[in-house]
């Protein structure tokens, strides 16, 4: 029988199958297999004489030079912090985020951040006129921004070789294609091969390349997972389109620390960096209201104080609701079980809603104590102490466990005018207490609730 000219490729992991299946047997994704044409076999020319591969001798570790490579500093502290101190020449950076979050705005503003560098902005989703209108709204009129509306990757690289930019932006990677591949733009093979060619361009020319990527409805980067492994840095642009706050988070960085965040505020004239996010997240806090606490979380190397709100009401249905915004839902379920088991709060007949103010997502367990105190405060309808910041992880036995870099968190709390801080008791030994801040050690959740409420 003749071999089929098509195949079915999983758009999540790249698994290939000869026929369509509802579920990918490799990654388990549903309805991810898409029919693609098989690549045409290319007959390789057999050389008359076998060429010898160039020899490469291994070198000892001590002989490798350690010259410090100069970075392109944008001057925006929030962006430079996330990138590890600036843009590394020859790096491949992937920027992903929800539609309308501000990815194209941030990439267009690179021309403002780097006025002495030539930036080539390649758009595959907009026309040159549309980008020009956005640049005028942002107040960008410099001659250093070059625009190109093209999706053919061969033509893009040819134009880049002629223009010789110092920064290249591809918006977006799902729209470009290589002509020799018969699959559609955005498919696994097109995204993988296009990223590989752009990586080769970045490494050989030492030009940093930014790739704008789409995200799926689950919040993951669209396309094969190999794309995240190929690039040097993966940035997520987070936030709610209906709010002004935007958070730029690094989840992978070969040239700096991971899980650093940069906070921006969206205005009509573009993005503005927020130098002090703690004051921003606490600016609209109300005092004397039950169900409100303040925790100090560590985002990379930066301490951030954020307000946590909780609302506990009697349920009107047979099954109580558990909703969390900005906090892990499963961890909230576990913490509520600890609160009910160890403190006797009967939450089985109550709906519990937890919200992290400002659109920030808390993944660190140091916020456990603040979440439970906020829930208990709303349940008892007793306002928590507004001048106290809560720091600590809560175990299943109700004990308060330690967290890292406590001195850095306390200095941030003292700088913002907090009077007291509840911390794990075994951290008090040898702890440097900031001036004006009373540090209280607690060993159990019961002690913390008695002290704050």
UniProtKB/TrEMBL annotation:
Domain RecA family profile: 68-215
GO molecular function term, any single one: ATP binding
Span(s) of short sequence motif RadA KNRFG motif: 252-256
Any single Pfam family the record assigns to this protein: Zn_ribbon_LapB
SMART domains per record: AAA
Residues reported to bind ATP: 97-104
Key words of the record: ATP-binding, DNA damage, DNA repair, DNA-binding, Hydrolase, Metal-binding, Nucleotide-binding, Stress response, Zinc, Zinc-finger
Gene3D superfamilies xrefs: 3.30.230.10, P-loop containing nucleotide triphosphate hydrolases (3.40.50.300)
InterPro entries associated with the record: AAA+_ATPase, DNA_repair_RadA, P-loop_NTPase, RecA_ATP-bd, Ribosomal_Su5_D2-typ_SF, Ribsml_uS5_D2-typ_fold_subgr, Rubredoxin_2
Annotated family: Belongs to the RecA family. RadA subfamily.
Functional summary from the UniProt entry: Plays a role in repairing double-strand DNA breaks, probably involving stabilizing or processing branched DNA or blocked replication forks. DNA-dependent ATPase involved in processing of recombination intermediates, plays a role in repairing DNA breaks. Stimulates the branch migration of RecA-mediated strand transfer reactions, allowing the 3' invading strand to extend heteroduplex DNA faster. Binds ssDNA in the presence of ADP but not other nucleotides, has ATPase activity that is stimulated by ssDNA and various branched DNA structures, but inhibited by SSB. Does not have RecA's homology-searching function.
PANTHER family: DNA REPAIR PROTEIN RADA, DNA REPAIR PROTEIN RADA-LIKE PROTEIN
NCBIfam families: sms
Protein name per UniProt: DNA repair protein RadA
Origin species: Rhodothermus profundi
Organism taxonomic ancestry: Bacteria, Pseudomonadati, Rhodothermota, Rhodothermia, Rhodothermales
Name of the encoding gene: radA
């Amino acid at each position: 029988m003749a071999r089929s000219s098509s195949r079915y490729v999983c758009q999540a992991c790249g698994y290939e199958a000869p026929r369509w299946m509802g579920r990918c047997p490799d990654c388990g994704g549903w309805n991810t297999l898409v029919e693609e044409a098989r690549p045409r076999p290319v007959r390789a020319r057999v050389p008359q004489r076998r060429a010898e591969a160039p020899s490469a001798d291994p070198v000892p570790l001590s002989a490798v030079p350690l010259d410090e490579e100069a970075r392109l500093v944008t001057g925006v502290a929030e962006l430079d912090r996330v990138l590890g101190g600036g843009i590394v020449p020859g790096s491949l950076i992937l920027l992903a985020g929800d539609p309308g979050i501000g990815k194209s705005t941030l990439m267009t503003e690179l021309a403002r951040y780097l006025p002495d560098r030539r930036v080539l902005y390649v758009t595959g989703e907009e026309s040159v006129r549309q980008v020009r209108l956005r640049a005028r709204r942002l107040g960008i009129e410099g001659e250093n921004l070059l625009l190109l509306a093209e999706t053919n990757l061969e033509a893009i690289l040819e134009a880049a070789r002629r223009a010789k930019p110092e920064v290249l932006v591809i918006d977006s990677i799902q729209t470009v294609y290589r002509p020799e591949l018969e699959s559609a733009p955005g498919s696994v093979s097109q995204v993988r091969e296009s990223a590989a060619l752009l990586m080769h361009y970045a490494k050989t020319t030492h030009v940093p390349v930014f790739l704008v990527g789409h995200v799926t409805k689950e919040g993951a980067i669209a396309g094969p997972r190999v794309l995240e492994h190929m690039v040097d840095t993966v940035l997520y642009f987070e936030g709610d389109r209906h709010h002004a706050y935007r958070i730029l988070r690094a989840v992978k960085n070969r040239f700096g620390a991971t899980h650093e965040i940069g906070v921006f505020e969206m205005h009509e004239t573009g993005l503005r960096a927020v130098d002090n996010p703690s004051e921003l997240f606490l600016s609209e806090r109300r005092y004397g209201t039950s169900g409100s606490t303040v925790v100090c979380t560590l985002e990379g190397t930066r301490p951030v104080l954020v307000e946590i709100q909780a609302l506990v009401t009697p349920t009107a249905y047979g099954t109580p609701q558990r909703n969390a915004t900005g906090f892990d839902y499963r961890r909230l379920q576990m913490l509520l079980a600890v609160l009910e088991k160890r403190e006797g709060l009967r939450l089985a007949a109550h709906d519990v809603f937890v919200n992290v103010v400002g659109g920030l997502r808390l993944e660190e367990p140091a916020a456990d104590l603040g979440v439970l105190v906020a829930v208990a405060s709303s349940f008892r309808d007793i306002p928590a102490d507004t001048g106290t910041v809560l720091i600590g992880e809560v175990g299943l036995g109700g004990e308060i466990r330690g967290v890292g870099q406590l001195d850095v968190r306390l200095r941030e709390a003292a700088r913002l005018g907090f009077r007291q801080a509840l911390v794990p008791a075994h951290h008090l030994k040898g702890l440097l207490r900031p001036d004006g801040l009373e540090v209280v050690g607690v060993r159990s959740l019961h002690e913390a609730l008695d002290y704050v409420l």
